[in-house]
Here is the input.
Amino acid sequence: MNYKNLQEEDKDIFDAIKNEERRQSEGMELIASENYVSQAVLETMANVLTNKYSEGYPGKRYYGGQEYVDIVEEIAIERAKKLFNAEHANVQALSGSPANAAVYMSFLKPGDKVLGLKLDHGGHLSHGHPVNFSGMLYDFVQYEVNPETGRIDMDKVREIALKEKPKMIVAGFSAYSREIEWKKFKEIADEVGAFTFADIAHTAGLIAGEQMDNPVPFFDVVSTTTHKTLRGPRGAIIMCKEKFAKQVDRAVFPGMQGGPHEHIIASKAVAFKEALKPEFKTYAGQVIKNAKALAGELINLGYKIVSDGTDNHLMVVDMTSKGVNGREAEEILDKVGISVSRSTIPNDPNPPMRPSGVRLGTPAITTRGMKEDDMKKLADWIEEAIKNKNSENELNKIKENVKEFCLKFPMPGV
Ligand code: DSN
Here is the structure.
């Protein structure tokens, strides 16, 4: 993107974008929920579809002039259905939390009981945390990971479900590194008569790339953001059984949202087309290989990883044995151009702003082209940076090495 007109019109914003572009290309992006979209996806976000109002759905809009918008949205819907083997897809959800709000609105009444994974055990705010709308509006009961194994204890989930008789069970996470036992969740939900809701925001790309199990064919409803491992624009989709299609669509519009963002829906369609290609499977497989390799290297260097490894694209690393908390680690690693996000560990004794861990993920660096062999270098830089946290000189040297290395891997869109 050359931003020629923007440069003339608004230098302040132009400069900020160019600086961010430089930061992204010179640094090692390990935030597990981030990725680099392709040039085609990027271009599709900047087009005249942004001018258009199209409340409603293809063929049933509340504004005129929909002939091309309908084509775009129909293509996005068909590709989403094909990618995830879904009976129905709503591609209008603006992002993950609004998508989840629409799911709850379509299946529940305020005050209904729901089961969700606790935030500091790897869940998401919108899975029932008290400061979030989900925890305020619905009666969430939270399940946890087993303190010994760091994995979701399915016997415990069943025990809680039998006792609490929830109306819905939510399976999904934002900081959990193991395969989710979707079938077991479904069995438990069937036993207590609960709806099944999977939030696959983190692993959607790994599922689409056929590297992880897909809950879409047998769960009642599934939401995902489109911008994480799936490598699309910032946004979300909701998929469900055909019998729930009307209620889900009604919850998104007019329940939760007004006019859909059709330029982003177009961009989602482009990303889905990319994800349907065979090379996307290779990318998804490599994301997991890289995560396993990075986890292995860190374990060799004495780091404690929650659940002792990973099956997916992320890992939560307890930094306290290295004498720093997650916030300090995030700040130190920022200084060397390695971008991570602080994270709680299960039963974290520290507060969320200064939690014990960091969450690392490999989607973005895999998109850049890094492979298992590069993970040793990366783990060594993390270790060196933490060890030399008080030496600006050493940190600057590491930053230069990280930059020189990253620039060997082209960043899409630049
Ligand atoms: N905040 C996102 C993440 O980083 O996982 C989830 O919404």
